Amino acid sequence: MSVRIAVFASGGGSNLQALIEHFANSDEAMIALVVSDRAEAGALARAQAAKIPAIHIRTRERPIDDVSADMLEVLEDQRIELIALAGYLKLVPPAVTRKFRDRIMNIHPALLPAFGGKGMFGNHVHAAVLSAGCRVTGATVHHVDDRYDEGSIIAQWPVPVLRGDTVASLAARVLRMEHRLYPLAVAALARRLRAPDATSGLADVFRMAASADGIEAEMSSLAGLE
Q1: Is residue 22 annotated as part of the catalytic site, yes or no?
Q2: Angle in degrees, CA 52, 21, 118, rounded to 5
Q3: pLDDT at residue 223, rounded to an integer
Q4: DSSP single-letter state for residue 199
Q5: 108, 126, 142, 179: which one is catalytic?
Q6: What percentage of the chain reaches a pLDDT higher than 70?
Q7: Residue 196 has what pLDDT?
Q8: How far apart are CA 104 and CA 81, in angstroms?
């Protein structure tokens, strides 16, 4: 039976779309629910277009216990086993992270623990990377706990920072990597839920990511930093 995945997203949902496409014909897992804290989020429209149940759970100016109760209710109703955050900008309530311990994950557009924490999301991250003069950044998939970006790291992949990069150009390069890495990492964790003693998993993530179209060209610029 497929692992049922909920995706939490606050924005347009490009990482959600990558997950939808990856699992569209999969027997391992399926995107069974999309949750957003924003009623106007593009992620909800993507879910509806894919005929995936989608729900807006308002978090602003609400007691955290009420938010937790709403989340846990819908997660139980949809029989969710794994949660993938995809641009979800709110801190997930502790009651939810406890319930889904080791079964809730996120992708961050930098190599944690650098450039993480509250307020470090999207272009804020890329601007900080450029300001620091870094020559390499990347994407990190990590477990989620009750603090921003402090859960244990599951997988990382480097992305070069090139001379002349702007926030926009760097963001686009990192996002391309996110779209490759995150579906593979989510699939690996889903397999592990079904077969906890299996030896395959993250090794397959790195092998498949490295063989993905365009990765070699993307990474070759690390040597020359063109």
Answers
A1: no
A2: 80
A3: 40
A4: S
A5: 108
A6: 87
A7: 73
A8: 9
Domains and CATH numbers, the chain: 3-224 (3.40.50.170)
Mean pLDDT score of the chain, rounded to an integer? Answer: 90
For 6, the token pair is: 């909920």
Alpha-carbon distances of 30 from 1, 41, 158, rounded to whole Å: 10, 21, 28
- Average pLDDT of span 176-189: 95
32 band by pLDDT with thresholds 50, 70 and 90: very high
